[in-house]
Amino acid sequence: MDDGPVHVTLWQDGAAATAPRALLVHGTMSWGTDSFRGQRPLAERFRLELMDRRGFGRSPDIERSDYEVDGQDIAVLLGSGAHLVGHSYGAAGTMLAAARRPDVVHSLTLIEPSTLRIAEENPVVGQALARIRAAFGEAREPMSPEEYLRYSTEDYGLPAPEFTPGLLRAAVSAMAERPVWDADIPLAALAGADYPKLVVNGTWETAHPEYRAFSGEALMACGESVADRIGARHVRVPRAGHSPHQDRPDSVNRLLADLWC
């Protein structure tokens, strides 16, 4: 089911009631307070609103997680205006909402956007898309959430995470997600908007070589292409992988604070 509003956690630890609003949208296999825990210090100056996408965190269940549904939810949560941040899968819904309601977007930050189709003409991205479509499109025996988490980590040289209830629920939703790498994003609308835009990638040098080869190189190329096509500043965060806001929170927080002031 997908009835009811999505859950939003408010962090406003020292910020004034009139402080700038920032709406943060997580990627897959996560939820708001988990994904953006490293951004908590920003709540001293800004009103942080951490959305749980449907099927994740404390938001309602959904039969199939979908970036277009996310975009509709984000557009509503923008209200009369906010800064927007989207990570990975969450960047797709964030871009759709920003294109739909440009008049209330104060700034747009995309962290490691996984909308690879945007840059499919790049050979690195095109080859990665072929690998990803094959890996996730092939018929296989149904997996348990635990098996899916191992498949998504150990098969790419990453350690298996702790199987907490929140992560297991996130895995269930992730298994049924609409593939984000083929999302059709209205780039012209984003490029024509006059709010500040930022795209953040890690440099991936500390990632496991298999993980970097399977998706990291393509994600870096995608971020560069997205930034170029929407007129955004592109920043690479050293010694960070797919979650630079977690790997190097101080660096990313400085970027966000500078953009939001």
Mean of pLDDT: 94
> What is the count of helical runs?
10
> Using DSSP, what is the number of strands?
7
Determine the structural class based on helices, strands and strand pairing: alpha/beta
State the helicity in percent bands. Answer: 40-55%
Rg over CA atoms: 17 Å
C-alpha termini separation: 39 Å
Could you state the order of secondary-structure elements as H and E?
EEHEHEHEHHHHEHEHH
- Contiguous low-pLDDT stretches (5 residues minimum) are none
Which strand order spans the largest sheet, edge to edge or round the barrel? 1-3-2-4-5-6-7
Largest sheet: 7 strands, mixed
Strand content: 5-15%
Overall geometric form? globular
Detail the topology: elements first, then pairings.
Elements: E1 8-11, E2 21-25, H1 32-35, E3 47-51, H2 67-77, E4 82-87, H3 89-100, E5 105-111, H4 123-137, H5 145-153, H6 165-175, H7 187-192, E6 197-202, H8 209-230, E7 233-237, H9 244-247, H10 249-260
Parallel strand pairs: 2-3, 2-4, 4-5, 5-6, 6-7
Antiparallel strand pairs: 1-3
Helix pairs in contact: 2-3, 4-8, 5-6
Please, could you describe this protein's structure?
There is one protein chain. 41% of the residues lie in helices and 15% in strands. The protein has 261 residues and is of the alpha/beta class. Strands 1-3-2-4-5-6-7 form a seven-stranded mixed beta sheet, with helices on both faces. α2 packs across α3 and α5 packs across α6.
What brief labels describe this structure?
261 residues, 7-stranded mixed sheet, 10 helices, 15% strand
